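Thread: quick sanity check before group meeting

JM: Hey all, I'm pulling together slides for Thursday and realized we never actually wrote out the predicted structure for the chain we discussed last week. Dropping the sequence here so it's in one place. If anyone has concerns about the input, flag it before I start.
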Amino acid sequence: MESTIKNSQRICPVPPGSKMGLNWRLRPRTIMAVGLTFMLTTTGLAFYLIQPTPIGGIITDPVLKVYNPQAAIVIDGDANFSDIALLEGWPGDGSPENPFIIDGLNTAPGGGWIESIYIRNTRVNFIICNCNYIGAPEDTFGFSWEPGIYLNNVTNGELVNNTCKKNPIGILLDSSNSNTVVNNTCIDNFHGIYLNESVSNTVVNNTCTDNSEWGMSVAGFGICLEYSDSNTVANNICNNNNAIGICLDGSSYNTVENNTCNSNDIGISLNRKLLVIPSNKFEYWTYSLSNTVVNNTCNNNRVGIYLLDPHSNTVVNNIFLGNTEHDLLEDFTPRKFDTKVLQSIGFFGLMGFAGIIMLGAAWRMLSGIRKYD
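JM (edit): ok, ran it. Output follows.
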């Protein structure tokens, strides 16, 4: 199957490393220039002198520790967005032609459940770009308790060229539709990018690696979709995560294409998910239905692709090499494939009564699949 997803590259209108952030804060507050300068100087000095105690006496990633910390930003509603944009001097008016631009913020949030940037209940157009959200260590494990970027009930947002590190979730979209997440780097979080009950978002060209939960194999996803439908997840690199490279839990009608998911416990996983409604004391299983998983590379995992109770999903032209246990694990039925076929075309064929479709020539199917009972 020929790819329909282009190698999208979103260019932020503000170049990385710009000095706009300083100007935004000085213009509205010229009358307080002396006091502000003193505050910034002493705050920056304290940040350099009072560093978190390194674990085991080893200081890691020294370059990422020298960002000037700024207060977390919380925006609630379109009117509040406009007010804060005016106060901070952010360019734009929130229209599709002239979105608000939040550029170059570097945050090191404090204690409690405070997000580095938390936007909710908005419909205006905005871009967050060239920002660094580094969780301030809060415990002996060296992790903060705040998501790096948190969108809740938000549409028309673009997250471009941001770095999120040492957060429980690098980027979290909750009940948020029609947003774009592109060219971000989410490393060393519990989870890299997480979508919950979110529809029609585009997650493209991100790097989500080395995410784990305190070294526990039960968690640590590169990209996870939970109860989220009709999203596009393409051209991402999701390697060396403690659990799963890309995970779909109770999520349907999504396209997962051209991703690289290597050296995880599981490369790509499609699962059912138990949905609990406490107010009605009711629960039921939601399934991952009618997803398309195409042209992905899943190498050197324990399991390449894992399908739990799948229905009507299309799995096409994926490549498996060097997975230690199973290339494809479907409802606990392991499958392995010939190396020769894998090197050339991955795996093809039609199999499974549950509606898993794997397309290709019949002779490839017959020569390329070995089933282990």
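AS: nice. Confidence is low (pLDDT under 50) at residues 17-68, 110-114, 335-373. The CA atoms of residues 69 and 107 lie 5 Å apart.
JM: adding both to the slides.
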